[in-house]
Each structure stands twice: as structure tokens, then as C-alpha cells.
Design goal:
Layout lengths: L4 H12 L19 H14 L2 E5 L5 E5 L8 E6 L14 E3 L7 E3 L2 E6 L5 H4 L6 E3 L8 H19 L8 E6 L12 H5 L3 E7 L5 E2 L4 E10 L15 H11 L16 E9 L3 E10 L2 H21 L4 E10 L3 H4 L4 H12 L14 H7 L6 E3 L11 E3 H20 L1
Parallel strand pairs: 3-8, 3-9, 9-15
Antiparallel strand pairs: 1-2, 2-8, 4-7, 5-6, 7-16, 10-15, 11-13, 11-14, 12-13
Helix pairs in contact: 1-4, 2-4, 4-11, 6-7, 9-11
């Protein structure tokens, strides 16, 4: 068996150190110029290892082909290059903890920060592994640069070993997944795949075919501005109305910190502005269409109720679709899911399928006609300073990807 550990470690450290945050407030594609740094690097690396049809599209996705050596369906393999905007991702300093001893992990740039196996049981199972984290001031970006490293390592190995049977493979490295815009309308056609997989999952064995359905909401509150010394019976403070909206929404039963399993939520993500005008941003999540619609209706009802208390204010609530539960389509044809399960079992990995309390590029791609389950990479504690990944888990994901494409060549 090939030792993929050094290559995976080197790739993840190299990719994670590149700033590549996406920005939901931008209207461009990709949403940030900074993402082109890693996109152009991947374009060059793909050419160097001998991939064909290497293209950086105008919408910021790197596409490439690994020619097939056996019959079978054309399979897309995807990972995203952007990092989440929820936490600082500028100037990431990856570091490797070799032969993890099973104890608490400290962080050189934040002495008060601790990654504990008592709080994170999956870490407790990784004694002896090489663990990669950031330094304490940023997230790591293993979401999804671990996926990028796995697919690049797989691609390099396949191209160097043409005797390994596989059908034609199409690689896609996308921007803006973290803001729900990773799948450009042209991508399904440009990918030219019968079905696909995102490598954007967590623990070893995860094969996910069910995700949240998601909408985004923007609430704008326009008050009445006047000098505070002259404000008696005239001022309408938009901040106070924004606070009323937040407080009127369910706090105990419908926020991310109070829900789990199949429960959805309404999550306030941003609050900006001042006394004259405020903007609130929300994400709405549910596994079922009816539940998602009900959460949107609730938010609109709360806005209308608060608006009725102050007719001089103007409150608008705009809801836009983001993605839908991939299960709606995949449950009609489980071929890609069963193929992945067979490949996992061939390596002694027991597949686990649980609903994703989030979404992937595969959610949108599936909705747009290219079935696309999500597969494990090993990443843990994503979107925060305690993010980590085991190099050995990434190596298992690489072996799994190789088993998957060889299994596809047998179909």
C-alpha cells in the first residue's frame, strides 16, 4: 500500500496557508479575488502532474480530466477552496502534532485555548496519529482544503499509475461553497459527469446523501433619525426594533445552539447598522420543505408584528433560496451512494450515513441534475480555532477514493 502521508501533509499545509475566504456581500464570481491564489496554484499543479483539459473557468472553478483506463460512468470529484467567513481565516499557520499522545492540545498563539479529547471524543480515538491544527488565532481551513489535498493526491497517483483501472474522472475545485454559491449555473454542463462526489465530510466512514434545505433572509429596518436632544416623540431607533425582532424569535427551541439531529433552526448571522437603519441576516435550515417554509413564514410574521408596533418604521424581510436537501433526488437513484458504500467496505470501513446539519456543493449539484453524495475527509471542529484533521484519516480517504474509482470501473 502506498504511503500517502507525506504528500497529504505537505499539500494541506501548503493550501491551508493561502488566504481564500469567500464573502457573501460580494456579487462577483468568485466572491473574492483572493481565492484566485489557490485556484491558479491548483491549475498549475494539475498541468504539472499530467491532467488533461485543465481549465480555470470565468466563474472561478478549476476543471480537469483524468483519462479513463476502463469502461464505466464518468465521475466528478469535487472539493471547495474557500474558507468560512464565520471566523478569522487570514494568515493561517498550520502545524503538525506528530504521534498525538492522547492528551490535551494547546495552541502557541492563544495560551487559553485547549483542544481536549474529553470534549471532542473523536480526537480520543486518534492517539498515535499526526494531527494538523492552526496556531490558535485562525481556523485551519481543512474545510475543505483537506478535500483538495485528498483529490490532488489521488489524481497524481492515478496519473502516475495508468495500470490502475478507472473510468474517466472529472475534477472540479470550486470557490464560494461556504456562502452557498459554489455551483455556478454552468458547472453541471461543464463538469460532464454522470454523477459526482464532494469530498467535504468529516469522520472516517461518512457517506452522506441527506442535507439541510436552506434559505437566507435579510431584514432591513429603517427608523426615523433626528438629533437625540430633540428626539421626544420623533425618534424611531432601528436598533431597538432589531432587538425586538431577535427577542421575539424562539430562543429556546429554534436556534443552532438548542437544536440537533433532525431539528431545523433560524440563525441570526449578522447585525449591522445604527439607530437610523439596521440590517439583520439570517440563515433558515430544515430537512423538509414544509419545515423550511414554516421558518420563513415565522420570521416574516415576527417582522410584521414588530412593524405593527411602530408604523413610522419601515421593515422589510426578503428570503432567497440557497439549496435543497439532496435526499429528494438521491433517494430515487442510490447508485452513487451504494457504489461508495461498496468501496468503503472493501477497505474494512463501515459506512455511516447520517443527515448533514449543513450543505455542500453536492446539494446544489444534485438539485441541478448531477447526483452528488458527500464523502469523508477526516476534518473536525470546522469553522473555528479548534479545527483539526488527522493525516492518517486523510490517507484513508485517499485510499477510499482510489477504491471508489476502481469499483466504478467494474460496473
Amino acid at each position: 500500500m502506498t504511503d500517502f502521508h507525506p504528500e497529504l501533509e505537505s499539500r494541506l499545509i501548503r493550501y491551508a496557508a493561502l488566504d481564500s475566504q469567500s464573502n457573501d456581500d460580494s456579487t462577483t464570481s468568485p466572491s473574492t479575488e483572493i481565492q484566485f491564489g489557490i485556484l491558479r496554484l491548483l491549475e498549475a499543479e494539475l498541468r504539472e502532474i499530467g491532467a488533461t483539459d485543465v481549465t480555470l473557468t470565468p466563474y472561478g472553478t478549476v476543471l480537469a480530466t483524468i483519462p479513463g483506463t476502463a469502461p464505466g460512468p464518468t465521475i466528478g470529484l469535487l472539493a471547495h477552496v474557500d474558507t468560512a467567513p464565520q471566523f478569522n481565516a487570514t494568515g493561517v499557520k498550520p502545524r503538525v502534532i506528530r504521534g498525538y499522545n492522547g492528551g490535551e492540545i494547546s495552541f502557541p498563539d492563544d495560551p487559553n485555548l485547549t483542544l481536549s479529547p474529553a470534549q471532542h471524543p473523536y480526537l480520543a480515538t486518534k492517539q498515535g496519529h499526526d494531527i494538523i491544527t492552526a496556531s490558535g488565532l485562525t481556523l485551519l481551513g481543512a474545510d475543505d482544503k483537506a478535500g483538495v489535498a485528498i483529490l490532488m493526491t489521488t489524481a497524481r497517483h492515478l496519473l502516475a499509475n495508468p495500470d490502475i483501472p478507472r473510468p474517466t474522472l472529472r475534477l472540479a475545485f470550486t470557490p464560494d461553497e461556504e456562502i452557498g454559491r459554489g455551483v455556478h449555473p454552468n458547472l453541471p454542463k461543464d463538469l460532464r459527469a454522470d454523477f459526482a462526489y464532494t469530498f467535504d465530510g468529516g469522520a472516517v466512514g461518512e457517506i452522506e446523501y441527506e442535507s439541510f434545505s436552506a434559505d437566507g433572509a435579510v431584514v432591513t429596518i429603517k427608523g426615523v433619525s433626528i438629533h437625540p436632544g430633540l428626539a421626544k416623540d420623533k425618534l424611531v431607533n432601528a436598533i431597538h426594533l432589531a432587538a425586538k425582532i431577535i427577542q421575539t424569535l424562539p430562543q429556546v427551541t429554534m436556534t443552532p445552539e438548542t437544536t440537533d439531529n433532525r431539528e431545523g433552526f433560524i440563525h441570526a448571522t449578522d447585525m449591522t447598522g445604527g439607530s437610523s437603519e439596521m440590517t439583520l441576516k439570517f440563515i433558515l435550515r430544515d430537512f423538509e420543505r414544509d419545515g423550511l417554509a414554516a421558518k420563513g413564514a415565522l420570521l416574516q410574521q415576527v417582522c410584521a408584528t414588530v412593524a405593527a408596533t411602530e408604523p413610522r418604521a419601515e421593515i422589510t424581510c426578503t428570503i432567497r433560496p440557497q439549496y435543497r436537501n439532496m435526499r429528494y433526488w438521491l433517494e430515487n437513484d442510490m447508485t452513487p451512494v451504494e457504489l461508495a458504500r461498496t468501496a468503503a467496505r472493501s477497505l474494512g470501513i463501515e459506512p455511516v450515513s447520517v443527515p448533514i446539519r449543513g450543505g455542500t456543493d453536492g446539494s446544489r449539484l444534485t438539485e441541478m441534475g448531477v447526483p452528488c453524495p458527500n464523502l469523508f475527509t477526516g476534518m473536525q471542529n470546522i469553522h473555528g480555532p479548534l479545527e483539526w484533521v488527522s493525516v492518517q484519516d486523510m490517507a484513508q480517504a485517499t485510499e477510499f477514493c482510489l477504491a471508489l474509482v476502481q469499483q466504478a470501473a467494474k460496473t
